[in-house]
Amino acid sequence: MDFKKNQEVIVEIQDLGKDGEGIGHFDGYALFVKEALPGEKVRVKIMKTKKNYGFARLVEILEPSPDRVEPACKVARQCGGCTLQHLSYEGQLRYKQKKVLDCLTRIGGTDLSAAVVNPILGMDNPWNYRNKAQFPVRADKDGNPTTGFYASRTHSVIPMTNCAIQDPISNEIVAKIVSFMKREGVLAYDEEKHSGLVRHIFVRKAFSTGEIMVCLVINGAFRGFMESYGEALTSVLRDIDGVVSILVNVNRERTNVILGTHTKVLWGKDTITDAIGEIKYQISAQSFYQVNPPQTLRLYQTALDFADVKPGETVWDMYCGIGTITLFLAAAVGGSGQVLGVEIVPEAVENARTNAALNQLTNVEFFCGAAEEVVGSEMVRDKVGPAGMKADVVVVDPPRKGCDGVLLDTILAMKPKRIVYVSCDPATLARDVKVLAEGAHGTKYEVKKVQACDMFPQGGHVETVVLMSKSEHPRCTQP
Ligand code: SAH
Question: Which of 32, 167, 193, 363 is the most buried (most CB within 10 A)?
Answer without folding.
Answer: 167
